[in-house]
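FW: tagging you since you asked about this chain on Friday. Here's the raw sequence from the shared folder, copied in full. Didn't touch anything.
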Amino acid sequence: MTDKGQSIGLAAWLQTPPGRYLLAWEQAQVEAAVPDLFGFHALQLGLPELDGLQTNRMPHRWLAGRDLLCDFDALPFESASLDLVLLPHALELASDAHALLREVERVLRPEGRLIVFGLNPASLWGLRQKLGRLKSRGEPYLPRDGEFIGYWRMRDWLKLLSFEVEAARFGIYRPPLRSEAWLQRWQWIEGVGSRWWPVLGAVYYIQAIKRVHGMRMIGLARNTRLAAKKAPAVALNHHQKKND
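HL: got it, structure written out here
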């Protein structure tokens, strides 16, 4: 850890006991969800420590920052060309979260999926972070960069862009402790928290589908066939090449 009053970045924080705990929970969520999401083109924006697409079977998969370099709010993809976009904490760290979400909506095809991970301000971890920021010499529990976006606020943003939430869950109910030993001692609270106060988990997962009102299914089928014939050539497809 750093000296008191200083802050560490997200990559370094993920190496701490609570960071590893959060990353393991999020890895488990995507490994359970993405194998059943079908299509041709998938993209992950942010958090390269999370291998969010490793269990997905789409032939074209990109991780921004590794497989392609781009501004998240100006993606090098045609409109309605992607089937899945994964945003692990990218909105929290974005300079303009609204612009990023609008850009994601642009590149997703109708009926395409969006997965979002966010830190919950209405949790013990969120409260600990807020108290740390209020103290002039306090050390934040989480990285100082970025801003929390509440779960219900996120759902409102998605609704305004015609996304329909089809799955959502919270996780991590242990207190904001720093040591591995103490985090393990509080393992028992996970079952209690998920049952009695589920919306107070430290992190949330949202899976949403892009709806386009009035679009006929025959049009969706045609768009799917076109997408299969022509993938957006933007950069080296790391996952595809590795699997060849």
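FW: The first strand starts at residue 41 and ends at 44.
HL: agreed, and The chain has one domain: 10-243.
FW: great, closing this out.
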